[in-house]
Amino acid sequence: MAGWLRSLLGVLLLLEVAAALSFLHHRYEEMVQALFHVQSQCPYVTRIYSIGRSVEGRHLYVLEFSDYPGIHEPLEPEFKYVGNMHGNEVLGRELLLQLSEFLCEEYRRGNERITRLIHDTRIHIMPSMNPDGYEVAAKQGPDSNGYLTGRNNANGVDLNRNFPDLNTFMYYSGEISGPNHHIPLPDNWKSQVEPETLAVIQWISSYNFVLSANLHGGAVVANYPYDKSQDQRFRSHRRTVNTPTPDDKLFQKLAKTYSYAHSWMHRGWNCGDYFADGITNGASWYSLSKGMQDFNYLYTNCFEITLELSCNKFPPEEDLERQWMANREALVAFIEEVHQGIKGMVSDENNNGIAGAVISVQGISHDITSGDMGDYFRLLLPGTYTVTASAEGYQPRTVTTTVGPAAPSLV
């Protein structure tokens, strides 16, 4: 078949898929129905599970895509998207529902790219972390929704200011050469967080997530850690200072992957703000304490960024299709970023996997650990690295490896 004809058929296929999607705002019951509809259409590569309930008792549902749903396969990375953390920032919720349907439809059609992605990645999609707040916002509707109406959960708490503050501990530890990874939680942390936050912390403690993004609205920019400034004099919303992680260049690359695959985020000028390349260090924008993306980086193996996707927090339904087309490629391309760097198994002399082994990369003061089966995943930019695996009761092992721009290196 001629190349131009294949390209034309590909375009027509995407147009057909786009036309099949329902570009509507989904209330809680409708969102649940949409998720179960996808699961019924792709039963062999999907699973729906709940990580807990909101203050008002709504399930926090997750839709999983995998060739073996419900099972962690060694050397297959775990990825997650979280939407609607702020109840009145609704575009991410709708985009994740669209993405779920898109992945299912394209898998059924035999799309090689999507099939490979689902076979090689365990993808977890949570459309709404704050279903109670969404219902408050939805009652107001897109036309009259206030800037804060429905933002918080049913207890009036901003969930993105509700995670344990590990940044302060990390900044203090840095002064005494302490850790900036896998920082332990304070003893009384469960009494300080909301049910939705508790459910998410237990969720990310149970899965060895490698890469993640949480979807917000009110701006158009890809925001990466740290969100909280190290200099406490700059805690004010009006005073900012760039506060990079040890993986700053990697985070910039991850953020640019999304912004440049997005139809206009990378242009920089959006919503009256300018962000070069459509990305920003969180603290450089404004300092945020107890946020989710910093918590992921400091407590788990997961690298998370925050995606601000629309000037209008609650866009009208007639804008949803345009927004989907602007974000579709970026949403898929960002998932593919989980397949970079190095991965491997940490085993003993009898080839038994060692859980909790520490993987250190020379020159980057942020370690990750192996999962329950002994497999590990370390996102890295292309280059040559000296990597050490160590575990209590064993001799450490150090190797030098070169990371290419394509598939992860097996170490």
TrEMBL record:
Active site: 308
Domain Peptidase M14: 24-338
Chief site of localization: secreted
PROSITE patterns: CARBOXYPEPT_ZN_1 (PS00132), CARBOXYPEPT_ZN_2 (PS00133), PEPTIDASE_M14 (PS52035)
Signal peptide: 1-20
Required cofactor(s): Zn(2+)
GO annotation, cellular component aspect: extracellular space
Compartment annotation: Secreted
A biological process term (GO) from this entry: protein processing
InterPro entries the UniProt entry points to: CarboxyPept-like_regulatory (IPR008969), CARBOXYPEPT_ZN_1 (IPR057246), CARBOXYPEPT_ZN_2 (IPR057247), M14_CPN (IPR033814), Peptidase_M14 (IPR000834), Peptidase_M14_domain (IPR050753)
GO MF term list: metallocarboxypeptidase activity; zinc ion binding
Record key words, sorted: Carboxypeptidase, Glycoprotein, Hydrolase, Metal-binding, Metalloprotease, Protease, Secreted, Signal, Zinc
Family membership: Belongs to the peptidase M14 family.
Name listed for the protein in its UniProt record: CBPN Carboxypeptidase
Species per Swiss-Prot/TrEMBL record: Stercorarius parasiticus (Parasitic jaeger)
